[in-house]
């Protein structure tokens, strides 16, 4: 029996007289503050079982123990007991101890002005030394069955000017979207917070934390550092942002963050999941009922990749109500469905907030700089859309003619299609979108996926005008559609209906680079 349990039992049995006598017997002092001070972890003396050297207490804001909270060192998962106590044998490589925020408790944040989640404590003791870490949780007034999720791809800032653009363009736009919501909101940053500039990590943390929602972060390849020739690691990033692998709960959703960037030397990397990660993940999921939705987020996309332990990872999510993967890295937008498991897993590959590395206002596939917004109800995502920075949320389509030539003094690019072919770039489309063409107000047909997979308009600006390296600025584009109008001279309108029934319209054709240069 823990000390506070014995004292409470004695008070309940013998009343306040016993408690006063106890204090007198102890000289009016105890090793810990009085039992009615719930915020001091010294209230409880914990004697862990033999072999366990990482332990602590989790109380709520009323000083009551919270049972069933999952706690981990990143290698092993345990739960708090009825007294709110957890204990485990920590891994010698563990750098943090963290808890998995339960769905009915608030996300703790660093400060009221820096909305960065605070759910962990560093482990600074020598291997084998006992470590105690206590946490306090705040009960929510009600379960968050409905909430909004924001996903921000690659800010990848390399200098203060780009930091300013991210703040004034992306974050200010995001704050405007937040101001329209009536639900709780949470954010995920998909990695590459910086572009190989470790000195900017702190200022970016301040900016990410400046909104009204907590923003969680995963690590990207450009967020890892080392002294050459050693392989880059996430140690410096972790000193600022915390654990690289962790999880939390909101409503009927279990969120998991994994670092899937592995450097083989100082410059070369690959996407992979280690056996240690999967062992931890399997333990983490053992506490998650199958009727929950899973949202896994990481940096490098899994789709189509021969990634280490990919199949093992996918199988871990079989049987859950709904599963979504969130990633970034590519600087293009793509929706991909993994069909090898049940349920099918929807992977959302997010366009970058920085677009084509802040050289323009678009990504390499023509997707505008921006972020994704997801509406969650219960254990399903009921709607999502891509929000282009500084545009209305209904801006989802750009139109061109198939024989148009785009470029400048460094070259020209075309879709190489007949002149009477209409090309639509519908950057958030998937197989369930229906894209219709109207001529002079009358529907004449549906657009079909294009045979081409590069956006000539984006290539023309980034390579033909800006003289950027084609190897880096020729991103894949999986969301081009074509149609041959019956009358190319007609008043043409395109309507795109997404899988949720939302209808987006475009009737203007883009023939210059004004929208790529500035907003």
UniProtKB/TrEMBL annotation:
Residues 152-332 form the Calcineurin-like phosphoesterase domain. Residues 347-504 form the Calcineurin-like phosphoesterase C-terminal domain. Residues 61-137 form the Calcineurin-like phosphoesterase N-terminal domain. InterPro entries: Calcineurin-like_PHP, CarboxyPept-like_regulatory, Metallo-depent_PP-like, Metallophos_C, Metallophos_N, STPP_CPPED1. It comes from the Bacteria. Transmembrane segments: none annotated. GO terms for molecular function: hydrolase activity. This is Calcineurin-like phosphoesterase. It comes from Parapedobacter composti.
């Amino acid at each position: 029996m823990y000390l506070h349990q014995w004292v409470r039992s004695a008070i309940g049995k013998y009343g306040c007289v016993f408690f006063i006598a106890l204090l007198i017997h102890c000289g009016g002092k105890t090793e810990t503050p009085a039992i009615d001070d719930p915020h001091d972890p010294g209230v409880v003396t914990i004697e862990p079982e033999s072999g366990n050297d990482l332990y602590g207490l989790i109380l709520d804001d009323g000083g009551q123990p919270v049972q069933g909270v999952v706690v981990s060192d990143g290698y092993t998962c345990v739960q708090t007991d009825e007294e709110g106590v957890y204990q485990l044998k920590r891994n010698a490589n563990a750098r943090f101890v963290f808890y998995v925020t339960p769905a009915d408790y608030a996300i703790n944040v660093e400060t009221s002005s820096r909305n960065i989640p605070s759910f962990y404590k560093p482990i600074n003791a020598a291997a084998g030394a006992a470590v105690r870490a206590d946490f306090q949780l705040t009960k929510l007034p009600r379960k968050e069955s409905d909430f909004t999720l924001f996903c921000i791809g690659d800010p990848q800032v390399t200098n203060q000017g780009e930091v300013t653009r991210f703040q004034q363009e992306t974050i200010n736009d995001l704050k405007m979207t937040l101001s329209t919501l009536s639900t709780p909101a949470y954010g995920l940053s998909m990695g590459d917070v910086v572009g190989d500039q470790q000195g900017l990590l702190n200022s970016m943390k301040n900016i990410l934390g400046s909104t009204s929602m907590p923003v969680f972060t995963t690590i990207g390849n450009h967020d890892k550092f080392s002294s050459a020739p050693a392989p880059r690691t996430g140690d410096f990033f972790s000193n600022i942002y915390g654990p690289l692998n962790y999880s939390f709960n909101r409503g009927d959703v279990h969120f998991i963050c994994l670092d899937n960037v592995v450097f083989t030397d100082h410059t070369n990397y690959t996407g992979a999941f280690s056996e240690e990660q999967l062992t931890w993940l399997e333990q983490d999921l053992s506490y998650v009922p199958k009727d929950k939705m899973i949202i896994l987020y990481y940096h490098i996309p899994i789709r189509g990749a021969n990634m280490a332990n990919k199949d093992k990872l996918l199988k871990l999510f079989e049987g859950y109500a709904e599963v979504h993967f969130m990633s970034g890295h590519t600087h293009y937008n793509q929706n991909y469905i993994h069909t090898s498991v049940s349920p099918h897993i929807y992977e959302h590959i997010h366009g970058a907030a920085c677009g084509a590395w802040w050289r323009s206002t678009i990504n390499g596939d023509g997707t505008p700089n921006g972020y994704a917004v997801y509406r969650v109800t219960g254990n399903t995502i009921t709607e999502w859309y891509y929000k282009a920075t500084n545009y209305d949320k209904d801006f989802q389509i750009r139109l061109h003619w198939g024989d148009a030539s785009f470029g400048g003094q460094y070259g020209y690019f075309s879709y190489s299609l007949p002149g009477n072919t209409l090309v639509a770039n519908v950057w958030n489309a998937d197989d369930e979108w229906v894209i219709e063409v109207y001529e002079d107000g009358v529907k004449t047909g549906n657009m079909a996926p294009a045979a081409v997979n590069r956006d000539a308009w984006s290539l023309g600006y980034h390579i033909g005008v800006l003289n950027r390296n084609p190897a880096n600025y020729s991103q894949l584009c999986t969301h081009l559609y074509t149609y041959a109008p019956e009358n190319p001279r007609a008043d043409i309108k395109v309507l795109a209906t997404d899988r949720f029934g939302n209808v987006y319209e475009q009737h203007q054709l883009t023939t210059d680079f004004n929208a790529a240069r500035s907003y």
